[in-house]
Inverse folding.
């Protein structure tokens, strides 16, 4: 029989305990990192929603070109072909969900969009050019109740009280639609 000398202070139980503790710490670190990455992904997906252009059911327009839509959004179009006043209803430019809309339609920062809204509404004393809604449901209700109104809303908030307009020949969720979130 051969004996192997063991250094003093070395303990098999302590060594195993340290190894298990390091393994748990590594697993905990991985779980925390995974959770943070998952949350960041969810936040970015929530901010990049698919939007749709909707109109009051009494509005005869069924489709807009991108250029026509941009003019409406920038309050450069005052009336529809039937003579009704044009009103754009949108969520606040500060809302993260509107990021895609600001980038693709206005092509300017939030502060400039806010200035444009204030200026456009001052110039139209008889009706607002751009109305800010507090939620998607509020937006749909305002578009439904204002003759000549159109709005930009999350596709999942659409109901039968409004009509979806084609934009540039495409409907929401079709490839190439201007207000696609991703």
């Amino acid at each position: 029989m051969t004996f192997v000398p063991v250094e003093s202070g070395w303990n098999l139980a302590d060594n195993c305990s340290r190894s298990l503790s390091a393994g748990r710490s590594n697993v905990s670190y991985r779980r925390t990192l995974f959770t943070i990455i998952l949350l960041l992904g969810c936040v970015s997906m929530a901010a990049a929603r698919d939007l749709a252009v909707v109109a009051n059911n009494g509005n005869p327009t069924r489709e807009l070109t991108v250029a026509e839509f941009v003019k409406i959004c920038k309050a450069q179009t005052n009336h529809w072909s039937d003579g009704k006043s044009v009103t754009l209803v949108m969520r606040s430019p500060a809302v993260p969900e509107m990021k895609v809309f600001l980038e693709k339609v206005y092509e300017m920062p939030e502060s400039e969009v806010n200035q444009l809204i204030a200026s456009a509404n001052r110039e139209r004393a008889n009706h607002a050019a751009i109305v800010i809604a507090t939620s998607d449901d509020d937006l749909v209700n305002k578009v439904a109740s204002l003759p000549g109104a159109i709005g930009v809303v999350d596709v999942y908030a659409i109901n039968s009280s409004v009509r979806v307009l084609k934009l540039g020949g495409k409907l929401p969720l079709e490839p190439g639609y201007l207000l696609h979130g991703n």
Summary: Residues 12-47 form the longest helix (36 residues). The chain has two domains: 9-47, 48-167. Helices lie at 12-47, 66-73, 99-106, 110-123, 136-145.
